[in-house]
Amino acid sequence: MRNYEIELTADGDTWLVTCPSLPEVTSFGETREDALARAADAIEEALAARIADGVEIPPPAGKPGALHAVLPLLTHLKVELYRALRAEGKSRADLQRAMKVHRPQIDRLLDLNHASKLDQIEAAFRALGREVNISVEAA
What are the pLDDT digits (tens) for 34-73? Predict the structure, then answer.
């Protein structure tokens, strides 16, 4: 699941967006639809900041029926790679050695603004003894 629950609150002429799982997320939109569109961007920025700071990222979560912001698939994979590294107690240098690549390549794999190739992300997960499974469901 790559959806983070969000909350929308009318605030005068704008709509405020927050995310219970990521308290640092706040954004707004002039309309409800605008606020919903900005929610995923705000969440991505918060996740990128957490990766840069080396802190925990909670898994996507939310109650059934709640509003959710859907992250791009590449963002989700990069966040899961970061979470897997932390779960294994491994550093970027450990992943670099396991993959036998240069450090900038590892940094790009964890950079949410870099368009990494899927085969590189799969190789990183394999180096951690994990595999990527993707399913397609009706929307």
Answer: 999 899 999 999 999 999 999 999 988 778 888 999 899 9
Which pTM was predicted? Answer: 0.90
Cα–Cα–Cα angle for 67, 16, 42, nearest 5°?
75
Q: What angle do CA 100, 104, 110 make, to 5 degrees?
A: 95
Within a domain: 133: no
Q: Which structural domain range is residue 31 located in? A: 3-70
Total count of domains within the chain:
2
Does some domain include residue 21?
Answer: yes
Instruction: Based on the fold, state whether residues 101 and 48 are members of the same structural domain.
Output: no
Q: Tokens standing for 131? A: 């595999």
Only one residue has tokens 């969440």, namely: 43
Claim to verify: residue 93 and residue 58 sit in the same structural domain: no
Average pLDDT value over all residues in the chain: 93
Distance (Å, whole) CA 10 – CA 93: 45
